[in-house]
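Researcher: We plan to redesign the surface later, but first we want a full-length starting point. Tokens attached.
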């Protein structure tokens, strides 16, 4: 059975702007275990205190499926394996598996290690031979293997031979520079497979955007172990993305590497790792991204409603994702009907409301509105077209002051707002870090007296985009706001030549949507 080896906690953590705490690493390890990884590389215990602490903490935590692996290098030149500090650190980690990286490219042996070629072979053999009786598994990461094989195939094969003779359980062919093509990786993996009966693995980097393809090519030629990271995290351009590789193996190649149930947790696990890494999810990521099964063109949507496989290469539910239909100026009737059904609104395709919505959306998007990331604003638009939109508050006026008194002092922002709620006029003011923040605070302050649940709403994201460039500072801007209440997240939009007005539209929609959905939930509970 093919084995999945995750190195998010070591190789993935080497990515720019990513830093996992010990607690983060523990939580990710359990997440990876839960989706069925066979091996989880926890780090390099000989390189930093954080990884030492992680392995120490993991001794008291039991993994249900996976085995923990510690990563390190072969012994140093002129030092016996039993006396090498790095080898000692690997054993002290308590990890049942060890992965040793060694040089297989003559260039690195001569220029980086600066040792004779024969000594490099001895370093590989001695290190693995010493570790093998003391741990469950020893894997050999053949660093720069494909570059080395192109340069001198016989020497690269000798490095693998040294590892195999010493008892390595798997020799992992590494495209460390990430510059190989699938034809190269597949061809060389096949040649290695013909020359040795040992188990072969693949470890690909993504510098040529080929890491997933190279991994698949190696598997097709008999690779037994696949190494990669969640979401493709890794140094430079990243590593082979397991979120793409796993469904490709399972669904395309029919390799039963994980169960169907665990595959359905893939999107959730991907998002979990993004959250702990504090990195925004890549929407267009294959299989697990928000846009992976999103349809915008009216012709596409019409076809998908009849048969999803017309524009979907797999059923999104298989990887825990779901189909989405976007609404824009490219929309047709099918888009409107699909979105209305999502909101529990039953519209006939020839209903006048559908035609009106299409007309309104195209006109609004011509002005700069965009509903792809603002589905809450779209739902309120549907309610308005149906003449069911309830006005929870009415703006009478607002004023925003942004004052800077001295050159070396920060500006001062204050917003005053007057609203009418159920015949009652509320007039209040608030200060903020900027004009939009002040307006947001004043709006909430005015409404919380009437609607206490408004306090649950948090502004999660705020984006401003200038539309066109001819008008300069007088150009229209689009404001997209993402809000949440701890249960659900929603997006709203506003457009105007005035950034404060555009922000008001998006903020007002955001709070109105909260009140609308609360009332909708209350009606459903009573029904």
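Model: Full-length starting sequence:
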């Amino acid at each position: 059975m093919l084995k999945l080896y995750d190195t998010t906690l070591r190789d993935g953590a080497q990515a720019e702007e990513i830093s996992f705490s010990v607690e983060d690493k523990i939580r990710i390890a359990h997440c990876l275990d839960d989706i069925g990884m066979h091996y989880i590389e926890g780090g390099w215990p000989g390189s930093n205190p954080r990884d030492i602490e992680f392995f120490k903490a993991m001794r008291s935590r039991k993994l249900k499926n996976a085995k923990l692996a510690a990563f390190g290098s072969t012994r140093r030149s002129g030092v016996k394996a039993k006396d090498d500090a790095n080898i000692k650190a690997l054993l002290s980690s308590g990890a049942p598996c060890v992965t040793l990286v060694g040089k297989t490219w003559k260039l690195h042996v001569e220029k980086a290690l600066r040792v004779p070629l024969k000594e490099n072979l001895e370093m590989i053999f001695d290190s693995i031979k010493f570790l093998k009786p003391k741990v469950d598994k020893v894997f050999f990461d053949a660093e720069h293997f494909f570059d080395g094989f192109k340069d001198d195939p016989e020497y690269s094969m000798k490095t693998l031979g040294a590892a195999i003779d010493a008892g390595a359980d798997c020799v992992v062919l590494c495209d460390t520079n990430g510059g190989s093509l699938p034809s190269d990786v597949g061809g060389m993996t096949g040649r290695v497979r013909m020359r040795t009966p040992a188990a072969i693995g693949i470890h690909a980097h993504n510098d040529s955007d080929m890491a997933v393809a190279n991994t698949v090519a190696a598997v097709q030629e008999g690779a037994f172990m696949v190494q990669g990271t969640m979401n493709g995290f890794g140094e430079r351009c990243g590593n082979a993305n397991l979120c793409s590789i796993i469904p490709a193996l399972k669904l395309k190649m029919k390799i039963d590497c994980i169960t169907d149930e665990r595959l359905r947790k893939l999107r959730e696990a991907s998002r979990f790792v993004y959250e702990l890494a504090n990195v925004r999810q890549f929407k267009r990521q294959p299989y697990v991204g928000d846009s992976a099964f999103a349809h915008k063109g009216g012709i596409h949507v019409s076809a998908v409603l009849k048969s999803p496989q017309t524009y979907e290469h797999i059923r999104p539910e298989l990887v825990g994702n779901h189909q989405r239909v976007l609404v824009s100026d490219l929309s047709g009737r099918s888009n409107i009907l699909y979105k209305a059904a999502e909101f529990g609104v039953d519209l006939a395709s020839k209903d006048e409301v559908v035609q009106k919505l299409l007309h309104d959306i195209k006109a609004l998007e011509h002005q700069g509105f965009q509903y792809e990331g603002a589905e809450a604003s779209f739902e309120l638009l549907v309610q308005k077209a149906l003449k069911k939109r309830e006005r929870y508050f009415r703006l009478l006026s607002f004023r925003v002051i942004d004052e800077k008194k001295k050159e070396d002092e920060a500006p001062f922002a204050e917003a005053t707002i007057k609203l009418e709620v159920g015949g009652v006029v509320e007039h209040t003011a608030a200060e903020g870090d900027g004009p939009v923040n002040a307006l947001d605070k004043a709006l909430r302050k005015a409404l919380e007296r009437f609607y206490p649940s408004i306090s649950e709403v948090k502004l999660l994201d705020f984006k401003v985009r200038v539309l066109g460039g001819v008008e300069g500072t007088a150009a229209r801007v689009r404001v997209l706001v993402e809000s949440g209440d701890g249960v659900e997240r929603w997006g709203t939009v506003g457009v105007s030549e005035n950034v404060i007005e555009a922000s008001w539209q998006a903020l007002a929609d955001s709070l109105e949507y909260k009140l609308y959905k609360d009332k909708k939930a209350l009606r459903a509970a009573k029904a």
